[in-house]
Amino acid sequence: MEQQSLLKQDIKQRFVSVYGLDVSPDEIGDDQELFGPESSFGLDSMDVLQFIATMHEEFNFDLGSLRTDTFKNVDTIAGFLQESRGG
């Protein structure tokens, strides 16, 4: 469980860094919408592509395995990354 918590914190830090957000990573909820009309960050579906590219550089996952909701929130991203690393 500790590993998943660290992964989620890493995702939040990268998210804040990539978009230069004026928010602490700790203020981002694990199930908070990151992109789209429900997002409080003002980021849309085009913005998600930049984040996917950033995360792909670090984690080298199979882009073909992405679903439309994979990068919905921190929980879905962490789950996807853990699955892609085999557990």
UniProtKB/TrEMBL annotation:
Pfam hit, one: PP-binding
Matching PROSITE patterns: CARRIER (PS50075)
Alphabetized InterPro entries for the sequence: ACP-like_sf, PP-bd_ACP
Source taxon at top rank: Bacteria
Domain annotation Carrier: ranges: 5-85
Protein name, as recorded: Phosphopantetheine-binding protein
Taxonomy of the source species: Bacteria, Bacillati, Actinomycetota, Rubrobacteria, Rubrobacterales
